[in-house]
Amino acid sequence: MKTKFVLGCLMISASLAVAQAAPAPQISSIFNADGAAEPLAASSTSFTYIIAHWPYGQGFSTQAMLANSGTATATVKVEFFNQAGASFSVPLSGIGLESSEILTIDAGDVSVLATETSQRENSNLEVAWGIATSTAPLNVFSLFDDGPSDTSITGAVGAQAAPAAKTFRFPVSVGGPTGFTAGVAIANPSSSTADVTVMVLNGDGSVKGSFTKTLPANNQTIFTLNGQRISFDSSLFTGSVAICSTEPIGLVTVGFEGAGTFFSTSVTNDPCPQ
Fold first, then answer.
1. Among 129, 53, 142, which residue's Cα sits nearest to residue 86?
2. Whether residue 51 is found in the same domain as residue 155
3. 131 and 214 Cβ atoms separated by less than 8 Å
4. Could you please report the per-residue DSSP string of 217-240?
5. pLDDT value at 6 more than 60
6. pLDDT by residue (tens digit) across 203-218?
7. Domain with 153 in it: what CATH number?
8. 10 Å Cβ neighbour count for 273?
9. Per-residue pLDDT tens over the stretch 148-161
10. DSSP state, residue 181
11. Residue 87 domain-assigned (yes or no)
């Protein structure tokens, strides 16, 4: 089921033609090393978080937990989009089909926005993504779960939703006896096309290979490292991935091990390798 989930997302992405692999350009020619690691700056009155992946159907459901640990009440607008960038209505638990939702989160409180759990029994896999804009700083955490019905969950994995940024770095494992498959979901909240360079680094920091994805404005895609122009043999590869974009993007790592145990990894905003 988990393998079908990642592959299903990839098939949707391919059908929309929102990301195309191409030879990687010289990193130094397109990135400013001094500013590449800076996240998308929030204004003095708003804070923006990218929920880069919101799948549901075929056993899956997604929810976001929004925590306000500050001293002021937060007014939050969450907007949903499909992979092609169009406004998209998501069946929300207790609310119904909505393409956007306004939340009021008091200081110290946590609000949950979730897909209706009956959608796990939907035979179609739907993939959305979202933007949460708040009047106060938040901690936004996404949880993806899997189960045969709305009352039974067999697995879950969570990942933090962060502000958009131009650079990301995270550890990765591919292959090996238990069959690690590493994937990434990226979303472009900007008004311009993002050229995204993905560099796979060996355990010693040297570059194993790289490829690019072109992501139009407001588009989202998901892909696995195993399916790109980088050769992995049957042995376990352990290294890291550096992602460098010409526009601020949102990102979440998704992957599975063996028969389909899902995992996510922590992500930093380290500068692009030079």
1. 129
2. yes
3. no
4. TT-EEEEEGGGSSS---SSPEEEE
5. no
6. 999 999 999 999 999 9
7. 2.60.290.11
8. 20
9. 887 888 888 899 99
10. E
11. yes
